[in-house]
Description:
single chain; Trypsin Inhibitor V, Chain A; three-stranded mixed β-sheet
Amino acid sequence: MRRNLLATTAIVGATIALSACGGGDSTDQASTDRAVAEALASQAAASTAPPTAASTATPTGESTADPAESAKPAATAKFVEFAMPNFVGMNLQDAQDRVQELGIFYSISHDLNGSRMQVLDRSWQVCDQSPRAGTRITGAADEFEGKFDFGTVKADESCP
């Protein structure tokens, strides 16, 4: 658990440092955001995995794991099935909330006019989205974590 926390902290710290350097275009920022999202999702999956027999070993080396328990299949992942709504024109926070209501916890966003970070999501509006509106989303919810990307501008700006 501590190793996962340290790895996640290192990934986030490196991303913040690279973002602070600037000089990249919005495509670079979006790629960085996607890479961070994928790394965080894999770290989250690893940290929620049930303990293995090795992690439940007693000081004498004996395992406390029940063989019948280890033969059980893993809990089934949450299944989602919906048509991707049209979020264009919505406030970014409202769009993110709606995605969460559909069963996807984590979405990403990027600035269409540069490389600004969306710190206060209510101050941004959605100008484009991926996947596009109407796309059928079907499968395990965790397969879609970090895969929904919103192109945004500040709420008082026009979409490019």
